[in-house]
Amino acid sequence: MTENEIRSQIAAKEDQITKIEEEASKKEAAAENEVNAAYGAKIAEIETKLTAEEASLAEATAKANEWVSKRKELSMSVKSLKAEYKLLNKEKDSGLKTKVKEINADRKAQINPIRSAIKAHQKELKALEKAALRGE
To answer: pTM of the predicted model, to two decimals?
Structure first.
């Protein structure tokens, strides 16, 4: 083979390579368009949903943090109020007990002289009954 023939064959082979690369490039573009057509709408839809859900999650997280904070505050408040409630009930019971003791002591102080008077009158009555029986 001559030099020109060899160069001609090399050029032909390079042209073949170029054609193959152009066809491959066209096929790649077509495949890309086909895949984009098949998945593009779905991806866009999911991306929209994802953005919305991320926003909802952020909002829910913020609200959850608020509620956790509020729960802590309310828990402390309830604990304090329970302690105060318990203390007041204890003081009420103690105060009532003291008042009842005072009332019972006052009652005894008022009743005892009356009972003594009744006993004295009963003795007097017995003495009169005995005297009446003797005098008959």
So the answer is: 0.49
